[in-house]
Description:
With 294 residues, this protein is mainly α.
Amino acid sequence: MSVLKEQxxxxxxxxxxxxxxxxxxWWIAFAFLxxxxxxxxxxxxxxxxxxxxxxxxxxxxxxxxxxxxFAWENYVRAxxxxxxxxYMLNTILITVWTVIIxxxxxxxxxxxxxxxxxxxxxxxxxxxxxxxxxPTGYTxxxxxxxxxxxxLLNSLTxxxxxxxxAANVSAILIYAGYFRQLPKExxxxxxxxxxxxxxxxxTVMLPLTMPVTxxxxxxxxxxxxxxxxxxxxxxxxRPELRTxxxxxxxxxxxxxxxxxxxAAAGVISIIPVVALFIxxxxxxxxxxxxxxxx
Length: 294
């Protein structure tokens, strides 16, 4: 009996210890994620705080985030004196048109690769995947040469075509995976109604890919909004065509850097990105989950 009691007591202690061990990782994970989130968000918080300080206070205040005096004139200087109003308009135009072109082009390519079997489809997919390993710097020379021959080098149109002309393999693969899991009865019903290829695609299939389209649009938006190399090349001789990322160089002088103005410009440039992600985060998660599941 004593042995049985000892075994029961031991098993009870073991079960309680097991429950404690099973619970503790949740708290450890929560603490780890909280610290990681703080470390991740802190640079953005510091940038917002620095945008409201003068340049001397940025370096003298140490880790103190609260400004002694709120210097709102930093935003006025960034928007008007540094020309960020014009750069914002350029960036919006370039990004919107690039997103539209990429979404339509990648959706069509993903639809064909995901729904149709034709000779050489695997070869096409292999070529697309191979382009992932080509650095952007290796393609800048043919892009500039082609734009120069077409008379589009120093224009917003040329910049849009250069930014939207990439392979965008990840977007095509996401669309192909999502289209592949849709039932074939949708296309068959559309064909019975007399719809052709493009009508079936734009009126039946594409509206069903809203999560994927939001994901591709958001990723393309981020890449285009933060693009630096191509906009720098296309606006080198015409400063009025600069985007927000290129316009940051206006705060870097020969002998000094306007850190407070640069921080204000950084806050201005990041607000649309954060707002768009908050608006599309639900579709973004659904699109990624659907593509991975397929």
